[in-house]
Specification:
Layout lengths: L10 H15 L4 E4 L4 E6 L3 H11 L8 E3 L6 H4 L5 H10 L4 E6 L6 H4 L4 E5 L4 H10 L3 E2 L14 H8 L4 E2 L11 E4 L6 E4 L5 H8 L3 E2 L23 E5 L2 H10 L1 H4 L4 E6 L3 H9 L3 E6 L2 H18 L2 E5 L6 H12 L2 E3 L1
Parallel strand pairs: 1-7, 3-5, 4-8, 9-10, 11-14, 11-15, 12-13, 12-14
Antiparallel strand pairs: 1-2, 2-6, 3-6, 4-5, 8-9
The structure holds adenosine monophosphate (AMP) and magnesium ion.
């Protein structure tokens, strides 16, 4: 399913975007919505501006940033080569939540790519992000707008919580809720470094077989970012593959949890087990009615429930479609995963 943003921009949005573009042109940093999550952006060609992103986030210098462009042909501003399979994926999935890792154009400062010879680039499918890039007149490098290691921001209030008044925030709505799929096209077969909005199945339909970076490979990671701790909320997160195990766990931990605030997030419906969990005195929330819904709620749940609960227990989902991306984030957020 392809979806195109309604391009209508309200006067208030336009005013914010103009202000944001001015900040970017002057070497500053701006938080802006994309269809995936909120980004923290700066002029990708301005080394000093990009440095501010790393400082604000507390991001390790060896974790490269994704460059965002507003026109497909601008890929040549940041990549020195665009192979055939990249062309096919660009035609099919841009604008959209697919980031391509390509050979780097020397014009991109090394700080953006953490000294790698490759560059990560995508064209977002969000009217505000696209207009911001267009008015700034430069590609914008932007990681997710969170303090390094924390859950990604999906709402303006999350950005505010992380950065206070230190960055200008353009208000808008995020559609997908988890970050883009990152695929490395400099190797054969291509390898998905991070699952996200565009699924492996969708990519394989266009360019044939691709690999997925295994969880166990992260220590020798091709994509430096994946080796770091991610999405750690302020509470202990546990991930389970089925409800019976959640019930058993809660029963065995009952005395440990007696003085703790515990939230159980069940997928799709509360059901019989959910009612039992409630009777045990724990809080219940439905993480989402569909996988898309779950993806959209996920980071908000981690951030907001993280403030209120000591423990959050998730019911996992099937690792198919966007479910693979959801489980990737949940595993990284979890203290322990029970299979
Ligand atoms: P973030 O924008 O914070 O969600 O993180 C961007 C992700 O893209 C991280 O996992 C990075 O490691 C990855 N990434 C960015 N540039 C490259 C690159 N040149 N090669 C491989 N992975 C990259
Ligand atoms: Mg991030």
């Amino acid at each position: 399913m392809r979806f195109y943003e309604n391009p209508y921009i309200s006067p208030k949005e336009e005013e914010q975007i103009k202000k944001g573009a001015e900040i970017i042109r002057n070497g500053g940093v701006v938080a802006f919505p994309t269809e995936t999550v909120y980004g923290l952006g700066a002029n990708a060609f301005d080394e000093n501006a990009v440095k501010k992103i790393f400082e604000l986030k507390g991001r390790p210098q060896d974790n490269p940033l994704i460059i965002h462009i507003a026109k497909k042909e601008d890929v040549f501003l940041v990549a020195r080569e665009v192979p055939k399979n990249a062309e096919i994926l660009i035609e099919k999935f841009w604008p959209g939540p697919l980031t391509l890792v390509l050979p780097k154009n020397p014009s991109v400062p090394d700080i953006v790519t953490a000294n790698l010879d490759t560059v990560a680039v995508r064209m977002p499918n969000h009217k505000i992000a696209l207009k911001l890039i267009e008015l700034s007149g430069v590609p914008i490098s932007a990681p997710s707008a969170n303090i390094s290691g924390k859950p990604s921001a999906t709402k303006p209030e999350h950005v505010k919580k992380y950065f206070g008044d230190k960055v200008f925030i353009i208000e808008g709505e995020v559609k997908i809720g988890i970050e883009s799929t990152v695929i490395d096209l400099t190797v054969s077969p291509p390898i998905i470094l991070r699952p996200g909005g565009i699924s492996k199945e969708m990519i394989e339909k266009e360019v044939g077989g691709v690999d997925v970076l295994a969880h166990s490979d992260v220590k020798v990671a091709k994509s430096p970012g994946v080796k770091y701790k991610h999405y750690a909320p302020d509470s202990d997160v546990y991930l389970f593959m089925n409800r019976k195990d959640i019930l058993r766990f809660l029963e065995s931990e009952r005395s440990n949890f007696s003085d703790k605030k515990v939230l159980v997030a069940l997928f799709k419906y509360v059901g019989e087990e959910g009612e039992k969990i409630k009777l045990m005195g724990f809080d219940i929330v439905v993480s989402g009615r569909t996988l898309e819904d779950f993806a959209k709620n996920l980071f908000n749940l981690l951030i907001v429930a993280g403030e209120k609960y000591d423990v959050i227990i998730f019911e996992g989902v099937e690792e198919r479609g966007i479910g693979l991306g959801i489980m990737n984030r949940l595993k990284k957020a979890s203290k322990k995963v029970f299979y």
